[in-house]
Design brief:
2 domains, Ubiquitin-like (UB roll), alpha+beta, L-glutamate N-acetyltransferase activity, L-amino peptidase D-ALA esterase/amidase, Arginine biosynthesis bifunctional protein ArgJ, transferase, globular, single chain, 30% helix
Amino acid sequence: MFTILPIKGFIDSIDGFYCDGIHAGLKPKGNKDLGFIYSDTLCDVKAVFTLNKFQAAPLKHYQNYEKDFQTNFVLVNSKNANALTGQKGIDDINEIFSSLNHEITNPIMSSTGVIGNPLPKQKIIDGANSFDLSSKNGENLSQAIMTTDAFPKTCLYEVKLEDGSSFKIGAVAKGAGMINPNLATMLCFICTDAAIPTEDMQELLDVNIHTTFNAISVDGDTSTNDTVLLLANKKSNSYDKEAFKEVLRLVMHDMAMLMVADGEGAKKAVAFEVINAASNEEAEIAAKALSNSLLVKTALFGEDPNFGRIASTIGASRVFCDDSKLVISYNDVVVFNKGEIVFTKEVEAAAGKVLQNDKFKVICDLGVGEGTFTAYGCDLGYRYVEINADYRT
C-alpha cells in the first residue's frame, strides 16, 4: 500500500535539487530566459525525445553520451531552439559547457524558441557563470523556460510507503503551441529522490508517455526540441515500483493537461473519449483525429455543438465504424444516437451549454468493439493566429 499526496512547492523542495532562472539577455524587457537544475549528487537520467526527423542540437548532444551516463546539471534556455544549426549547434553546446566555472558532470542542455538561429553563446556563458548553484527558486526556473506560455507549469508530490519511508517527485514544464500527439512540443523536467533502479526509469517513462504527452494536441504540429527528462538522485533510499509508476503518471498527466489548457489563446480543454471501437489502436486513431481537427477545434471555439464535424472526422480517420451504431455526446448530452438525429432545439441548447464550460468531454461510442482511448485537445481561435504570426518578432 502507498499514499500519494500533492504538496506545495517546486522541484527544489526535493532533497538535493537546486534550481533558478535569470535574465541573460536572450529575451527583451528583462524577462527570464536562462535556467538550471543542479543536484548535489549525480543523478541517473533517462529521456524521451521528439519524433521530428530534424532533432535539435541539444537532443543530439545528449545522445552522444554513453548509455546510462549520470549527470548533475541541466542548462535550459528559451528564445532560441538551437535547431537546424548542424554540427555547429552541437559544438556551441560543448563550448558553452567548457567555459563554465561550475563543477559539473556530463551536463545536459535543453533549448526552446525560434528554429534556425545560432545560439548567442556569450550571453549564455556569462549568464550561466553567474548562477548560484545553491539557489532554490523553482518559480524563477519555471518562468525562464517559457516561450508563448501564459503561465508556468509545475507540480510536486510526496509518496508515503507502507514501511514508513517516503520519496518526492515533481516537475517543471513549458508548452503551449506546436503541440501534437507525437510527444508534444514541450520541455518537461521531472526530478525525484526515489531510489528507482536505472532499468525502471525508461520503462516507466515509456509506459506513461502514451496516455499523457502523446495524447495531447493543440495545433497538430510537432517541434524539433520536444524533451522529457527524468532525473533521479536516489537520496531518499525509498522506492516502490507500482507507487512510482502511478505518481509518475500523475506528474506527466498534470503537465500534459496544463499544456492543453494553455494552448495558445485556448479557452477550453477538451477530452475526446472514444469507446467501443474495434480495437484500442483504432480508438486511438479516432481520438487523435478529433483532437487534431481544425474544424472540430474552431467549432469548440465558437461553442457550436456541431456533431457533424465530430462524425465526419471519425469517418475520415478510416477506422471501422457504422453510423447506425455511433453515439456522440457532449458530457451526458446525447446529440446523435445510432443513426437517429436527436438534435432538437432543446438538445442543441443543452449541448451548447456544455461547450460554454472551460473543461468538458466529447464522448464517441463507436459500438463496434471494446477498444478505448482518450486524447486531449483544446479550441483554436483568433489569438492563436496573432501569436504565431508575430512569433519571431
